[in-house]
User: What shape does this take?
Amino acid sequence: MEIKILELAKDRARIVFVGEGHTFMNLLTDEVLKDPAVDVARYTMEFQHSDPEFFITTKRKDPVKVLREACRRISGYCDDILEGIKEA
Assistant: This one.
């Protein structure tokens, strides 16, 4: 996955996720918002097939760390699904 960091500060970030669509961005946004340190998490897509820009602000926590933790949880969910399929 290719990303482009547009802005990075101790309590905010703006990141473009190249080639991603609404499916992944909705999942990421929902998962990031589960962290109590997150103030705002949202994404925008200027046009239907443009790359989404993700915006996050936090309280007392590095936004990149929040994103990494959310992605690890998402990966864990996928591992659980694959394990369930193997067992079926």
